[in-house]
Amino acid sequence: xxxxxxxxxxxxxxxxxxxxxxxxxxxxxxxxxxxxxxxxxxxxxxxxxxxxxxxxxxxxxxxxxxxxxxxxxxxxxxxxxxxxxxxxxxxxxxxxxxxxxxxxxxxxxxxxxxxxxxxxxxxxxxxxxxxxxxxxxxxxxxxxxxxxxxxxxxxxxxxxxxxxxxxxxxxxxxxxxxxxxxxxxxxxxxxxxxxxxxxxxxxxxxxxxxxxxxxxxxxxxxxxxxxxxxxxxxxxxxxxxxxxxxxxxxxxxxxxxxxxxxxxxxxxxxxxxxxxxxxxxxxxxxxxxxxxxxxxxxxxxxxxxxxxxxxxxxxxxxxxxxxxxxxxxxxxxxxxxxxxxxxxxxxxxxxxxxxxxxxxxxxxxxxxxxxxxxxxxxxxxxxxxxxxxxxxxxxxxxxxxxxxxxxxxxxxxxxxxxxxxxxxxxxxxxxxxxxxxxxxxxxxxxxxxxxxx
Length: 453
Prior knowledge:
This protein is α/β, with parallel strands linked by helices. It contains 15 helices and 22 strands.
């Protein structure tokens, strides 16, 4: 019987095994979604909100247990896992409080006696989610989608099946009817089966560029909407009037959180040459304070990568970059999934460290002659998810931020996803938005209604 194994990345201990669902079991889940949708979608907003407030409370009540599950399955430092659970609760309460207001009828003055736009749910939405934030990525999708009145089916990454099932349990324990949120334990080939039927109406994917391209092609062939949040190679621009020490502190935190496994982690650190040496010294000092090891150890700052193949890929990217002229200042050693926090200098176009998404604790320094070249380097990427800009001149910072081709730019702070702000990218980083009012609008029917006497 085929199954997915959950393996603790730090020492490769097998945690659990999860049976892959049969086609008949998947069909049952789809039918369940279809049957429960009319009931869930017609439920008053306040009743759906109550379910989400219950979910938020359960997340906090089960925080230690859920955080332990996250760390066991993908290796995140335990305190980061706890913070992820707390963020999920925040997202649930945000949509419980705001969904009804976001989806109120929009009155439009026309020649008709009355005309307005109604925002109505579309049905079952299929979510394909990654392992790096195994609860937050799901709730970022589920909170707006379900509060709008849709129902959801989740195909999570194979190494976090326990997290997937735990999320379904949270919804059911919070009072959601069976079928409102379901976990599908299956291989990637299930996507075409699920999207080719009449029950699922749209798909949301967070993952790699390759996965997004494949899933969007399937959805397009079925004339079904897709929302994609894909890879990133975010810029972190440091101008000559920046607070260098603060910028360096935030830069290291941004690059090394979740062992560098974040789509919106800063990855290309583009520094004006006038302050490059000072910034490099400050970054080096901050990286040297990091401590790698067992993610359950409270003194540890950096856990392992989530899988052995990911560590191998990262090691190859670093070695190829070094062969093309990048210089090792710190790190660049690997043991199992444990990749040492690394600092590279002299990174430039043509290296994997510049051209590709580096998904791990590798800090890449890129020199720019001036702010004009810094913006050009920032935009010289096929990705466009987020970006950082550091300057004490706020007006100039806003002007330059508008010139960066990305879904967001954070001036003098770390890029984050927050419930009240739209999240998503441009170029190969995907399309569509999650979170905020914009996120809840992705999976609704924007319906025009007019009345004539």
